[in-house]
Each structure stands twice: as C-alpha cells, then as structure tokens.
Specification:
It is a single chain. By secondary structure, the protein is mostly helical. The protein folds into 2 domains: 192 residues, MFS general substrate transporter like domains (Growth Hormone, Chain: A); 189 residues, MFS general substrate transporter like domains (Growth Hormone, Chain: A, Up-down Bundle), CATH 1.20.1250.20. 79% of the residues lie in helices and 0% in strands. The chain is built from 17 helices and no strands. It is globular and about 60 Å long. The C terminus is likely disordered.
Amino acid sequence: MTESNKDKNAWAWVPSLYFTEGLPYVIIITLSVIMYKKLGVSNADIGIYTSWLYLPWVLKPLWSPIVDISSTKRKWFLGMQLLLAIAFLGVGITIPTNSFFILSLSCFWIAAFASATNDIASDGFYLLALSEKKQSFFLGVRSTFYRLAMITGQGLLVVLAGFLEEYYGNDQKAWSYTMIITTIIMIVLTLINFFTAPKVEEVATNTEEQNKVRFLDVFITFFQKKQIWIALAFILVYRLGESQLVKMASPFLLDKTEAGGLAFSTTEVGTIYGTFGIIALTIGGILGGIVISRYGLKKWMLPMILALNLPNLLYALLAFWQPTSVVFATVVVIVEQFGYGFGFAAYLMFLIYVAEGVSKTSHYAIATGFMALGMMLPGMLSGIIQEAIGYTGFFIWVAIAAIPGIILTRYIQYPADYGKKEKD
C-alpha cells in the first residue's frame, strides 16, 4: 500500500468502525448482566458465567498473529461483525425457550470470540489505513465513538428493554425483542463499514516458518522484560475490587429491597449508567490523562488507584441505608465512575509502559490479555461472595480488595518522567 492511499475517507470509516468495536463489547460484558438479572438468574451464576465471557479477550494474543498473516484486516472485521449479528440474533431467539440460559450464553460465547477478533482486526486496520499523523489526529474521534457505543449499549438499549418490559409485561419478550433490534443495528453497522472502509491492504506473504519464529519471539521477549512478574502481578490486582463491583452493581440496583437491593427499574438503571455514569467516566478519563501528561505517572499512581477504589465504599452505604430515591444512587454512580475513569488512566499508561520496546503492539496485546484475566477471575467469584455475605458486606470486601494493588505501587518500576509531554 502506498502512502498516498492512506487516510482515504477517514472521517467516513473511523467513527463507524470504533462504534462497531465498542457496542458488542458493552453488550456482552455489561448488558448481559442486566439481562440475566431481569430474567431471574442468580447473582452467583451471573458472576461465574458472564465472567467467563472475558476469556476471548484474555486469549486474543494467541490468535492475533493469525489475523495478521491470513487475509486482510478489512475482511476479518467485516466477517466478525456479521458473525456478531448472527450471535445476537441467536440470543434473541433463545431467550423465550426453557433452556434460555445455556443457549443464550452459548451465543454470547460466540459473540465474545467474534468481538475480540473484531478488536484485533479493527485496531490493525486503523494502523494500516492511516498515516502516523492521522492516527494521532483520530485518537479522540475513535475514543468518542467508542464511548457513544457504550452509552448506546449500557444506556439506550437497556432503557429500550425497560420500556418493552412495561409495554408487554413480559421480561422474556422484552429482552428477546431488544436483542433482535441489536441484531438489526449490527447488520446496519456492518453494511456501513463495508461501504466506507477502503481496500488498502495486501495479504501478508511471510512463510509459515517465518511466522512461527516471529510468533514465539513475541512471547519470549515479553517475559524477558525487567521485573515483568511484579508488573504482571500489579496488572492482575489493580482492579481486584472493581472487577467484582462491576458484576454486582447492576444486580444490586435491580434486586428487591428484601434481598438487599434498591429495587430500581431497568429503565432507571439504564439511565443512571448509560448517561450520567458514562459522562462521569469520560470526564474522569480525560482529567486523568491530563494530570499524567503534566506530572508523570509515578507521582499520580497512588492517588489514582485510591480514586478508583475508595468510591466503592459508597455502595456499602447505599446497601446499608437502602434509600428509595434514585438521586442518591445516581450520585454514587457518578462519583464511582468518575473515580474509575480517573484511576483507569494510570492503569492504561502502565500497560503502555510494560509494552515498550520491540514488538510493542503485540506486547500491548499480551498486557491487555492479563488485564482481562484480572477482570475475569475475581468476577467469577463475585456473585458467590455477595450471596454469602450480603450486599453491604460485599461492597466493604470490594474496598478491602484494593489493598494488594496499593501495596504493589511501592514495588513497581516507573520510567523517569514517563507519560510527561514529549517524553515517551
């Protein structure tokens, strides 16, 4: 591909490509939790089985070279987006059945692998189809449309499901129709990407032996990095509390008061998280990036990990008092999501630091795989712990779970002035 072919119609395809990358992820990871809660699945089962859906993002570094060496990124993401539409249709069709949980979960599994592969192909296409200058220019655009996808999946679609629940008086029918509508949205997005994404690639011509050596070298050089095991331990425990909170926060808001919840409607939960929550998350993330760029990662790591974890105690207060007004819960979600966005900026910067050196892109994929593992394993236990000690005890435990990450901030390495402007 010549340089003159790069940057072609970028405004037409970058927004839709990253909206299509964000929407399946939030549906699989977040919307599925709310859906299963409304369909009567226990918190323990929700925690265990929806956490397994992180596995494709944990393992995606293992098959990312396949996306690199076979066919083109454009064909890969178009194929995966079509497969996502089919998988979401499968969820919608199976919800009204007697075996809806295992059948719909199987469809979500297919969707999770397709979504993780779509991420690989979409990010790879972005790097190939844009010049370095335009890659930097469109970072804000791709982030914005990824956030819009989160608002759509965690907010608008949940609000839609809540409306249909009230309209039909049948949760199964409401969520079945919601997933079918989601299928239509995915098909439309796939068609938009088909017509807007330029054909700018050539299929890789490396030999099988060359690809094998390259693949092995990526992993060898990653695990040879200095203090890599301390870094990986930090990656795994940084969100130890948050990984459990994210699985039980929505069930807490939806659960009946006699079960310790706040008994909010699906529409209210969709509005709280999908609008106010996402806005606070975005502002926190932007502010986090600004302070790191000005003052460096080392100075702000401890304040940021505290900002991510301390607001979780507010959920314990909600669980203890069980206020009936949605205002209190909305304030707590705003504070928690702002703290999460602010604290997550340091986490992402640390992942970038760990990936520095040769094979930076592949090493970043491995680091994010460990990040996903750090979300999956604690999340699997979250429902079991919550059912054992109740919501108040659970949210106190979530706050306590921040301690290992806070301790490790004293032992991880920071490059001098890493993250400051013009020092990368």
